């Protein structure tokens, strides 16, 4: 085992830290309070902002263990033994790297953070960039070193400016010093040449270079200058979880800095001859051609339909790159999406087949399996109508990076895609399996777990085809069955499409969720099942109906309304029931008309300006109200069935019975009549609009205008109400006579009231 200068101390510190993380994790999982765990691992994240969630806390424990490993890597120092004799630039680079690590660890100390504490680290970046330029003189071409120097200094300047701008609160200048579109691209343009130089320089180990590569990938995925907006406190916010995880994984950058310094301090490794490049034996070309041609099949089908992309903006993988990572990574994902969509993996497979080196073959097979897995995830997590499709600005932003005119919209405004990504997954996984069978390493050189994982992943991907590709027709959703909302038609009313035939059945199933089918089940499957139920409904065999009730939990004899669109027997029953209800309703209305016709007609004692006896009985639900703009504030007064307030007069009626209404308008005060009435009440009302109409908004009742030829001003309203018995007192109806005439006074006068209110 290799020993290090401070290995024991580093191991002790790392072990104590990991133990603290594990103990706090156990406490978090048992008590539901993750405050201590998050304080140790992330230095914050208030549980009120990100509520306790068991799997998030497990992620925190795993992140804490990773940080313990990072502490050991940072603190262990150079390898034990004689120190290397380095030139002055190398010694200065080691010092600058260690100081950069110290500035990074400064944030973990329990001290108040001030924005200017970040300036020393930013200024050190200038020194690190320059010293790497000098130290890598023999490992990289001069032009590449100069390029790295320029972009490195630019990145350091941008970082320093961003620290000052954000520290001083100059938010308007932030987009100029830390553009969202750039992300960490400038930093990567410096880091990648440095890693290439380290890989060529024997002073750095391959482990250091690999950790640097991991740090580069995380920098690409990082949001950079992109701000993720979240309010927290409403369950698991995946934006915040991504930020927490990326923050924890940021230790790879610190470990790379520390190991780069450690490697320069130890004795240079003994150079060893590079391992021979193993080339797989050639195989018959038709079999290799199959591996090359497979990814071209779904690409050709998609291109024939005018769709040059692989997944498009759908599924969790695309959501990850469009909502949780930096803009450059999003652009790279769209490029990969288009390349896979047009069959570019075939080129990679062709190169691997021609070269046949074991490393290239392994990389190719791994890339194919990863792409196949991404396609499966995208296919299985695709939503029929994602949230971003509902907001035009978000939809425009989501589709902006794709070639114009690629994605069309259907009648419902939904984006139309090409083949399901699972067909690509099947083709890519099959190509990987063919490559494994043709060019797999011989048993002596093959690691068993590599073979097992590759074969298992390929087999799973081949068997994973989504239900969307097995559909035999369109899928009508419950929302498709409803009329469009006003905001979807610019406020213009749209008459709903009548539901008849198969569409009526499908919409009944979707909206009522009568049958136990998923919302994505094709319409044809529902129709086939519905016709089978129709057969059982028509036969009406008690044993068959009982069997369906026991096996599927369906009472088929109660599904008449659902099956009516496709089942003549059910439709006949529904039609007969509707006709019976219609006859009953017509008989009920005719009976109410007969009641009103039988009520005594009112004979005015003086000639009214107009008199209206309504032919049809009214059926208000909450009484009748007369409303106008009030002249002033005042109190509400109730007298018998009448309630009067400034700007309104309401007449109470019984909601279970119809009302036979007569309206009369006079030019002068009519004589008071109380004979035959239970209530006679007179109140005042100011008419400002020129119209006086009693209405009931719930039932839609609206009586004719009571005003005197549109005259404005003050009126007196006299309300007469009585009960009219019919075939027994409980089957009677209500009589209502309302008089109006111009006159002063707001006093409520009761001319008659019953000894006992009905």
TrEMBL record:
Record flagged with keyword Membrane: yes
The organism's place on the tree of life at top rank: Bacteria
Transmembrane parts of this sequence: 52-72, 92-111, 123-140, 147-168, 180-199, 211-234, 240-258, 287-310, 330-353, 360-380, 422-439, 451-468
Region (Disordered): 474-495
Protein keywords: Membrane, Transmembrane, Transmembrane helix
UniProt protein name: Uncharacterized protein
Protein source organism: Nonomuraea glycinis
Lineage: Bacteria, Bacillati, Actinomycetota, Actinomycetes, Streptosporangiales
């Amino acid at each position: 085992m290799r020993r290090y200068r401070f290995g024991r101390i580093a191991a002790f510190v790392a072990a104590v830290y990991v133990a603290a993380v594990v103990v706090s994790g156990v406490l978090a999982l048992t008590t539901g309070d993750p405050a201590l765990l998050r304080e140790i691992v992330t230095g914050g994240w208030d549980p009120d902002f990100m509520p306790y969630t068991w799997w998030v806390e497990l992620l925190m424990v795993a992140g804490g263990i990773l940080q313990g490993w990072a502490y050991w890597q940072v603190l262990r120092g150079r390898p034990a033994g004689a120190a290397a004799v380095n030139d002055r630039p190398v010694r200065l680079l080691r010092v600058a790297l260690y100081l950069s690590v110290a500035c990074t660890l400064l944030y973990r100390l329990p001290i108040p953070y001030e924005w200017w504490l970040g300036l020393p680290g930013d200024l050190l970046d200038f020194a690190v960039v320059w010293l790497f330029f000098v130290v890598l003189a023999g490992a990289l071409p001069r032009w590449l070193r100069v390029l790295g120097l320029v972009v490195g200094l630019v990145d350091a300047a941008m970082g320093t400016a961003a620290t000052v701008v954000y520290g001083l609160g100059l938010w308007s200048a932030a987009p100029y010093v830390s553009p969202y579109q750039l992300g960490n691209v400038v930093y990567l343009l410096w880091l990648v040449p440095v890693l290439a130089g380290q890989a060529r320089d024997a002073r750095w180990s391959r482990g250091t270079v690999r950790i640097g590569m991991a740090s580069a990938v995380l920098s690409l995925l990082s949001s950079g200058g992109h701000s993720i907006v979240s309010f927290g406190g409403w369950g698991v916010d995946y934006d915040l979880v991504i930020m927490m995880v990326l923050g924890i994984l940021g230790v790879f950058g610190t470990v790379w800095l520390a190991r780069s310094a450690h490697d320069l301090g130890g004795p240079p490794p003994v150079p060893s001859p590079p391992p021979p490049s193993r080339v797989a034996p050639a195989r018959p070309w038709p079999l290799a051609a199959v591996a090359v041609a497979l990814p071209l099949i779904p690409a050709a089908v998609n291109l024939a339909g005018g769709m040059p992309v692989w997944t498009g903006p759908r599924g969790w993988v695309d959501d990850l790159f469009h909502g949780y990572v930096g803009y450059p990574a999003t652009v790279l994902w769209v490029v990969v999406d288009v390349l896979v969509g047009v069959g570019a993996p075939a080129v990679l497979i062709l190169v691997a087949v021609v070269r046949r080196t074991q490393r290239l073959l392994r990389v190719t097979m791994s890339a194919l399996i990863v792409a196949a897995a991404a396609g499966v995830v995208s296919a299985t997590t695709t939503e029929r109508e994602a949230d971003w499709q509902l907001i035009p600005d978000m939809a425009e932003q989501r589709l902006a990076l794709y070639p114009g005119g690629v994605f069309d919209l259907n009648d419902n405004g939904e984006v139309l895609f090409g083949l399901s990504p699972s067909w690509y997954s099947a083709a890519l996984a099959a190509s990987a399996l063919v490559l494994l069978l043709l060019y797999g390493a011989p048993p002596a050189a093959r690691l068993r777990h590599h073979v097992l994982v590759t074969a298992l992943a390929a087999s799973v991907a081949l068997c994973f085809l989504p239900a969307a590709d097995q559909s035999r027709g369109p899928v009508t959703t419950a929302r498709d069955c409803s009329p469009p909302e006003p905001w979807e038609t610019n406020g213009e009313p749209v008459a709903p499409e009548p539901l008849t035939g198969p569409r009526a059945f499908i919409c009944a199933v979707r909206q009522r969720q009568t049958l136990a089918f998923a919302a994505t089940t094709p319409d044809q499957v529902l129709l086939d099942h519905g016709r089978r139920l129709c057969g059982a409904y028509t036969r009406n065999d008690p044993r068959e109906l009982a069997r369906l009730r026991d096996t599927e939990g369906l009472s088929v004899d109660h599904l008449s309304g659902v099956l009516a669109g496709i089942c003549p027997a059910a439709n006949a029953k529904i039609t007969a029931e509707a006709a019976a209800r219609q006859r009953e309703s017509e008989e009920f209305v005719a009976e109410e008309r007969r009641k009103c016709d039988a009520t005594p007609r009112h004979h005015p004692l003086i000639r009214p300006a107009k008199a209206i006896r309504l032919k049809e009985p009214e059926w208000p639900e909450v009484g009748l109200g007369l409303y106008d703009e009030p002249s002033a504030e005042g109190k509400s007064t109730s007298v018998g069935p009448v309630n009067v307030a400034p700007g309104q007069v309401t007449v109470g009626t019984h909601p279970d019975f119809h009302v036979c209404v007569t309206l009369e308008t006079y030019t002068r005060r009519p004589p008071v009549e109380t004979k035959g009435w239970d209530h006679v009440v007179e109140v005042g009302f100011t008419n400002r609009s020129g119209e006086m109409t009693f209405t009931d908004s719930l039932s839609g009742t609206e009586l004719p205008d009571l005003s005197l030829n549109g005259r404005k001003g003050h009126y007196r309203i006299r309300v007469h109400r009585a009960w009219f018995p019919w075939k027994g007192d409980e089957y009677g109806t209500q009589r209502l006579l309302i008089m109006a005439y111009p006159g002063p006074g707001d006093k409520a006068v009761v001319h008659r009231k019953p000894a006992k209110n009905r």
